[in-house]
Amino acid sequence: MLTSKQRAALRGMANTIDTIFQVGKDGLGDSFYAQVDAALEARELIKLRVLESALLDPREAAAELAGRCRAEVVQVIGSRFILYRPSKEKKIKL
After folding, report:
1. Which of 26, 45, 76, 83 shows its CA 20 to 30 Å from the CA of 16?
2. pLDDT by residue for the chain (94 residues), tens digit each?
3. Residue 94 domain-assigned (yes or no)
């Protein structure tokens, strides 16, 4: 579980990263989970976006992905959300 200070630090780091995944009308499939899982292992902190055509709202998508990928939801703002999961190498120091 992240503390509020850790969450704030991660939000600051996320300001400079680009959105790397988009959730569309196809929703969240097994291959999408696998890609997000791999990205979390490689980067630890990722930003995603939920398109208007998606059947899920951003909070639902964030919660579903975080649960399935053993990650933490750092922030949900508008149609974007940020996920964090420490990798084995622990690239981000909190």
Report:
1. 26
2. 899 999 999 999 999 999 999 999 988 999 999 999 999 999 999 999 999 999 999 999 999 999 999 999 999 999 999 999 998 888 888 7
3. no
